[in-house]
Specification:
Helix 13 links the parallel strand 17 and strand 18. Helix content is 39%, strand content 21%. It is built from 15 helices and 23 strands. 53% of the residues are buried.
């Protein structure tokens, strides 16, 4: 990556914003488009097809034809594996182009688009490719008079709706298991970051995925997204986004064909630091790094930092020093570690929460203001509040920006109670040198993932998802196949 002039590449970039349906680039049925600008500096990137209900109808029909024809689902698992591995290879071969699109589209630093987003996307597709021919069906222990086969079958047409913060990764977490299982997919990317999804569909076709198996319809949630979730010929929806929209997904399923809905929703993750932990510098560095990574636009960001009272002042000082290394800068500079928020609306949302924190009495130790105001983009300085109560808005509501709240506690029981006093339950973390405490607290925390003496270490082999209003079902790992397959029992009488 060193030596690449990303600004020159961006200036030379030409983006085709048409959608992908049935293996072809097509305009919206009514010709509608929307302008996509970069949050980095406001530059125009592309006119993107504005999909509507007619386009969703076309995409779902194409996906259904491909499924019924058997051009993908009828291929042996080993054959699907080869195609998906080629898809992963093509993603890696196009890593610089995809990384540039991702950074321009949603504002993240190019160093992370390249090293994290593209790499993780390809790794996910390859992992599910390798898994698909290693999953066995079952024979139930019914006795000698019968043979009961339990087989896993593709569902049919899967609607995938993903957010703007990790466009490629979130898509891959759903595309990997859905395609590997033999389904056809209609993907609706966020209107705030549609560009990499369109390129991914092109690369999948080049890799040998049959026409109609992977379709991409960009557009707005209240138009294309709603039409996809309401469509009577869609068998399941894999959704990642806000809890507010997740509720709508369930409503749409009830109003249509009772399709399965798998929601991966918001979070307000608690990160608990006990005074007995021996390396507070590492804990502070990890807390800041995970909070300010991706500009705080992460559903699992550890935005509630619970610190034991006896070390709280010292720990807050360490955090403030760490925050200084995450000042926003040019995302197309390879050294930048914090970029732009996705758009003007998100900027105003984050600034509104910062003002709410001040109004409710929290003390702003760092940041607390817009940054790089002359850039034409949307930047906020890494912000730390101390003296936060768990009932404040900044402690209860998902901000999706670089705003960290320090909440003080005195006892282990109080820490667990505060951590669990949230409508969310996506992830949590705890830092302690006491093995017994680590087990007790991890078991008591109501979250889909609990990190101990680290935060956000990750692997494709482990499931991702949450408790409570953080959603249902799990992305990643073999458990994700449960979302995109049906279990069939075939009972055969013998003799």
């Amino acid at each position: 990556m060193e030596g690449i002039d990303w600004h020159a590449r961006a200036a030379a970039l030409s983006v085709d914003g048409r959608m992908w349906i049935d293996g072809e680039r097509v305009a919206a049925a009514d010709g509608a488009t929307f302008a996509k600008a970069s949050p980095i500096d406001g530059r125009h990137l592309a006119q993107v097809a504005r999909g509507g209900s007619a386009d969703i109808d076309r995409a779902v029909a194409g996906a259904r034809r491909a499924f019924e024809k058997g051009s993908w689902v009828a291929q042996p698992p080993a054959a699907r594996k080869k195609v998906l591995l080629r898809f992963a290879e093509k993603l890696l071969a196009s890593r610089e182009e995809l990384a540039l699109l991702e950074s321009l589209d949603m504002g993240k630093p190019i160093r992370y688009s390249l090293s994290v987003d593209v790499a993780a996307t390809a790794r996910c597709i390859a992992w599910y490719a390798e898994a698909v021919d290693k999953i066995y069906d079952e024979i139930a222990p019914t006795g000698p008079g019968a043979l009961a086969l339990i087989t896993r079958e593709a569902m049919g047409v899967i609607g995938v709706i993903v957010p703007w913060n990790y466009p490629m990764i979130m898509a891959a977490w759903k595309l990997g298991p859905a395609l590997a299982a033999g389904n056809s997919v209609v993907l609706k990317p966020s209107e705030k970051s549609p560009l990499t999804a369109l390129r991914m569909a092109e690369l999948a076709l080049e890799a040998g995925l049959p026409e109609g198996v992977f379709n991409v319809v960009p557009g707005f949630g209240h138009e294309a997204g709603e039409a996809l979730a309401l469509h009577g010929d869609v068998d399941a929806i894999g959704f990642t986004g806000s809890t507010r929209v997740g509720r709508k997904m369930l409503e749409y399923a009830g109003r249509s064909n009772l399709k399965r809905v798998y929601n991966e929703l918001g979070g307000k993750s608690a990160n608990i630091v006990f005074a007995d932990f021996e390396d507070l510098d590492r804990a502070a560095g990890t807390a800041a790094g995970n909070m300010f990574f991706n500009q705080g636009e992460s559903c699992n960001a550890p935005s509630r930092l619970l610190v034991e009272e006896s070390i709280a002042d010292d720990f807050a000082a360490r955090l403030t020093r760490e925050a200084a290394s995450y000042l926003p800068a040019d995302p197309l500079d390879a050294q930048t570690v914090m970029g732009a928020l996705v758009d003007a609306g998100q900027l105003q949302t984050v600034l509104g929460y910062i003002e709410a924190g001040r109004a409710e009495g929290a003390r702003c130790l760092a940041g607390g203001a817009q940054a790089r105001g002359d850039s034409g983009g949307f930047y906020v300085a890494p912000t730390i509040f101390d003296g936060v109560r768990n009932d404040m808005r900044i402690a209860q509501e998902e901000i999706f920006g670089p705003v960290l709240s320090i909440i003080r506690f005195r006892t282990e029981e109080e820490a667990v109670a505060i951590a669990n006093a949230s409508s969310y339950g996506l992830q949590a973390g705890l830092w302690t040198s006491n093995l017994g405490r680590a087990h007790r607290v991890a078991r008591a925390l109501r979250a889909g993932t609990v990190h101990v003496n680290q935060y956000d270490e990750d692997d494709m082999t482990v499931p991702f998802g949450g408790y409570k209003q953080s959603g249902n079902g799990r992305d990643k790992s073999l458990h994700a196949f449960d979302k995109y397959t049906e279990l069939k029992t075939t009972w055969i009488r013998l003799g």
